[in-house]
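In the design runs reported in the main text, the only information available to the sequence generator was the tokenized backbone. The following block is the verbatim input for one such run; it is reproduced so that readers can re-run the procedure and compare outputs position by position.
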């Protein structure tokens, strides 16, 4: 009986099998596995495989799947359990589709099990077009949600991964989009280790993410997809990353064409591989064989990369008897199931942030309202539901459709587009402002007006998107585009009560609306079920619980230069002015109170945790969820540090009148600061901790009418350096 090759022996470790498989390949065969569209090696039983798949908020670009809210909307839930379940559903549907396609011998792009998500870049500036792909501006929140997503996607089987997640874009990447192929992000060590790296570290050390994608730009002169500092020193040596690194798509060609760090295709391919990039999304690695023949790279460097890639495929069960891989039996019927779409609706509901609600105008009573005007370019827009990196939904429910469905048989709906999203008129033959008169007529006949304004992913997005016509995906300012502000003010002048439903993936300076409009809802890009979730909120079927994962500024004039990567005067942690709507802020249809239990231990030594016990009570008349937030401040720091930082949050569900005890623990790492050398140190001295439904800033307290509780404790002993 012929002995089975080691790589086919399912009793051996994946590492042993991967090394054996790679040892049997020629140089050319190895190199063929290092491009995203990898070739089949029939003599070894290796089928072709396309590594490129997307799953930012649902399985993307591969036909029909459940569509969840865009990532920034899911961040507004402040709910780790929710992100875990969303990712688990995405992996289930990805598996169902992958195996069905493979049975049809379809192994094309977007059909694999290596998903290039989550995007955990820090949304440092609201003008960045791709910020809606992220979990917001805070490193702690981004890390917690990123870890939850990764664990949900990769599954909990002791042997096999459900899907392979990829944390991107490593690192220091958040615009400008139009210069991303040549841009050099200059960042000091303090900002690097305090803001730009923590979420990646969490995803590597705790999430055990299988893959890391490099960014297009340079960081301090080194292109990210070939950065010895990022890929070798930090990722591999400091954090012990064991997975594979993939380049962003066609990023390696930028090395010689845009960044000027190499002078040819061969040099760029060798530069990337030698500094730790294992997989090339693009075509530069087709030059690896020639680079090897010219002595620019070693066979050892190739082997190291291909073994990592084969390890991922082994973990996904691609070379094993499918009957032994638990996820391979997920049936196609699990894709786009009614249960999954119902959960997408629940996620959309939990993502909504109520920014303003004067005199409790919301919720509306649909039994008393006979005529409703639904006005605005986003009222009946599918594009405003989906964001980017989206799949195809089997059903889309726009805001207009959701309101019609909710009020069927009860109210007359008057719909008017009012204006284009950013153009001044509908077509070249139209007069300017050609849709405003109709909107006024609709408002005049209504008891209440639902204004649906904002953006969509065609005007805030990626450099290569059609958004090039509107600033390469980045916003020039924080104003509502086109005629939207004029439309809003014109409709307000009719005297009818106006509810603003703002759909966007980023902050807009809604100053006028804040001063005049009685109610404002931030709805993000809420996914295919978004219209139902918005209507359900407006008519009081649930109480909103979302909180802002980004700061809403009053203007772009108060922001530093977009190209400046210093965190000074950026985000809630360092901003100097009051926000229009602060990070962590969001109203409810009920009220909450917070009471603290005094600390039993006021002093701790370095290395000790400290736990705070809070009683949260729903003092209103509506059942609701609340996001309990914990912020910490080192009040005796020797260097400049954030004014306070989010270091804990918990979603709690409370019936009207119910109270619950919440315990929140602060670790030594949470108390530590980052010094100018990028070191994490814990200093002795006094600390303040604030726990409540918002930040402790005066603007949040004024908007919510609810105070936070404050603790003070002391760390004794000596300055302690912590492992980053």
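Verbatim output:
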């Amino acid at each position: 009986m012929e002995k089975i090759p080691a790589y086919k022996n399912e009793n051996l470790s994946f590492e042993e099998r991967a090394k054996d498989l790679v040892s049997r390949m020629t140089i050319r065969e190895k190199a063929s596995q290092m491009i995203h569209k990898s070739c089949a090696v029939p003599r070894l039983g290796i089928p072709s495989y396309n590594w490129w798949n997307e799953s930012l908020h649902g399985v993307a670009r591969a036909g029909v799947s459940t569509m969840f809210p865009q990532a920034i909307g899911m961040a507004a839930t402040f709910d780790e359990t929710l992100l875990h379940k969303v990712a688990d559903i995405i992996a289930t549907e990805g598996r169902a589709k992958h195996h069905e396609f493979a049975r049809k011998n379809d192994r094309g792009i977007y059909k694999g099990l290596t998903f290039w998500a989550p995007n955990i870049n820090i949304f440092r500036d609201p003008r960045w077009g791709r910020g809606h792909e992220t979990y917001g501006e805070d490193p702690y929140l981004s890390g917690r949600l990123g870890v939850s997503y990764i664990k949900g996607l990769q599954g909990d089987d002791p042997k096999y991964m459900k899907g392979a997640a990829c944390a991107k874009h490593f690192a220091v990447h958040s615009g400008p989009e139009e210069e991303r192929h040549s841009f050099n992000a200059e960042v000091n060590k303090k900002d690097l280790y305090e803001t730009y790296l923590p979420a990646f570290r969490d995803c590597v050390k705790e999430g055990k993410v299988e893959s890391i994608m490099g960014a297009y730009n340079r960081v301090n002169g080194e292109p990210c997809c070939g950065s010895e500092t990022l890929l070798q020193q930090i990722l591999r040596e400091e954090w012990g990353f064991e997975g594979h690194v993939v380049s962003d798509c066609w990023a390696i060609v930028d090395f010689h064409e845009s960044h000027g760090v190499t002078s040819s295709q061969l040099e760029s391919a060798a530069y990337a591989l030698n500094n730790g990039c294992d997989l090339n999304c693009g075509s530069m690695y087709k030059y690896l064989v020639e680079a090897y023949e010219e002595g620019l790279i070693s066979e050892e460097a190739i082997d190291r990369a291909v073994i990592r890639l084969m390890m991922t495929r082994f973990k996904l069960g691609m070379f094993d008897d499918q009957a032994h891989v638990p996820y391979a039996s997920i049936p196609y019927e699990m894709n786009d199931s009614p249960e999954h779409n119902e959960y997408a609706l629940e996620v959309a509901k939990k993502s909504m942030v109520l920014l303003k609600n004067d005199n409790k105008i919301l919720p509306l009573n649909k039994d008393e309202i006979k005529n409703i005007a639904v006005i605005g370019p986003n009222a009946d827009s599918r594009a405003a539901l989906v964001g980017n990196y989206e799949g195809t939904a089997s059903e889309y429910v726009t805001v207009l459709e959701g309101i019609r469905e909710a009020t069927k048989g009860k109210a007359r709906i008057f719909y008017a587009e009012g204006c284009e999203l950013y153009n001044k008129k509908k077509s070249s033959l139209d007069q300017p402002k050609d849709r405003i008169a109709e909107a006024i007529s609709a408002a005049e006949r209504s008891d209440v007006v639902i204004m649906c304004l904002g953006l969509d992913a065609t005007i805030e997005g990626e450099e290569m998107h059609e958004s090039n016509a509107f600033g390469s995906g980045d916003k020039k300012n924080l104003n509502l585009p086109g005629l939207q502000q004029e439309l809003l003010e014109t409709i307000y002048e009719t005297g009818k009560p106006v509810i603003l439903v703002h759909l966007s993936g980023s902050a807009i300076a809604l100053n006028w609306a804040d001063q005049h409009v009685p109610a404002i809802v931030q709805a993000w890009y809420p996914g295919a079920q978004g219209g139902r979730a918005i209507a359900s909120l407006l008519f009081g079927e649930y109480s909103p619980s979302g909180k802002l994962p980004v700061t809403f500024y009053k203007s772009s004039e108060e922001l530093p230069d977009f190209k400046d990567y210093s965190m000074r005067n950026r985000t809630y942690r360092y901003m100097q002015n009051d926000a229009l709507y602060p990070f962590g802020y969001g109203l409810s249809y009920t009220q909450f109170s917070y009471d603290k239990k005094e600390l039993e231990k006021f002093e701790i030594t370095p290395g000790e945790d400290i736990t705070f016990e809070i009683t949260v009570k729903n003092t209103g008349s509506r059942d609701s969820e609340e996001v309990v937030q914990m912020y910490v401040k080192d009040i005796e720091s020797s260097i400049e540090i954030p004014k306070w930082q989010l270091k804990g949050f918990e979603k709690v569900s409370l019936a009207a009148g119910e109270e619950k005890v919440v315990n929140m623990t602060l670790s030594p790492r949470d108390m530590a600061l980052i010094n100018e050398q990028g070191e994490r140190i814990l200093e002795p001295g006094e600390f303040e901790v604030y726990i409540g439904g918002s930040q402790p800033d005066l603007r949040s307290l004024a908007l919510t009418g609810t105070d936070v509780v404050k603790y003070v404790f002391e760390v004794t002993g000596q300055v302690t350096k912590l492992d980053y």
